Backbone:
């Protein structure tokens, strides 16, 4: 078996990286340079939820696993893509969106919610993201799904002054099940092959609520 194609599903982390309102802004500054020190070394300051990242259950439940305690198997698996690109601002991803691929959902797969909202990355519209319905989330969890991804800043509705929201029901449901959430994915349209293998392996930050990832989809062949 060989790798035929690798699709990058990650945003670049830098000074222009869009973060959740109130989260730390990333700062990347030269610490050492070839000219001065003979080598380049970067000082990196950012929040654990910066860029394309995964949430550990600990993000919403202090009694559960931190990111460095989660079994690595939970970050890799066969991807099942749910097409929710028909939704507008703050649209709800319901079971009707999942139904066309429901037969391919099984324990160990990674469900990727494709909203197309990554096209708004870097703009104010990015915070008006579509989000997963709690009922659809419960059904996916009942079918054994423990890893979810979305090409938006939040798998729940993102609150603001005009939309106070109702908390983070999907985050809580997934955390209660010991599951993983990946947010700020991008490039899902480039997964143009069947049976994509998804890798969301995070940095092993000690006792952290989450960590950045270099998310990829891999096509294997003979």
Residues:
């Amino acid at each position: 078996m060989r790798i035929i194609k690798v699709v990058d599903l990650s945003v670049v982390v830098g000074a222009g990286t869009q973060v959740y309102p109130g989260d730390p802004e990333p700062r990347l500054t030269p610490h050492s340079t070839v000219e001065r020190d003979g080598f380049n070394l970067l000082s990196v300051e950012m929040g654990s939820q910066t860029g394309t990242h995964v949430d550990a259950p600990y993000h919403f439940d202090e009694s559960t696993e931190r990111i460095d305690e989660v079994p690595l198997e939970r970050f890799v698996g066969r991807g099942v893509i749910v097409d929710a690109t028909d939704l507008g601002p703050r649209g709800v991803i319901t079971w009707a969106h999942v139904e066309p691929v429901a037969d391919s959902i099984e324990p160990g797969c990674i469900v990727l919610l494709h909203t197309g909202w990554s096209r708004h990355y870097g703009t104010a519209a990015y915070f008006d993201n579509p989000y997963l319905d709690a009922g659809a989330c419960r059904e996916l969890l009942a079918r054994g799904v423990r890893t979810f991804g979305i090409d938006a800043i939040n798998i729940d509705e993102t609150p603001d002054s005009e939309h106070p929201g109702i908390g983070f029901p999907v985050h809580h449901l997934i955390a209660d099940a010991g599951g993983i959430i990946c947010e700020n994915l991008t490039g899902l349209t480039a997964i143009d092959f069947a049976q994509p293998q998804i890798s969301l392996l995070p940095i092993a930050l000690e006792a952290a609520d989450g960590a950045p990832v270099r998310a990829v989809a891999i096509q294997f062949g003979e």
The chain has one domain: 2-11+48-221. The chain has a mean pLDDT of 97. Residues 2-11+48-221 form a domain with the Glucose Oxidase; domain 1 fold (CATH 3.50.30.50). The first strand starts at residue 2 and ends at 8.
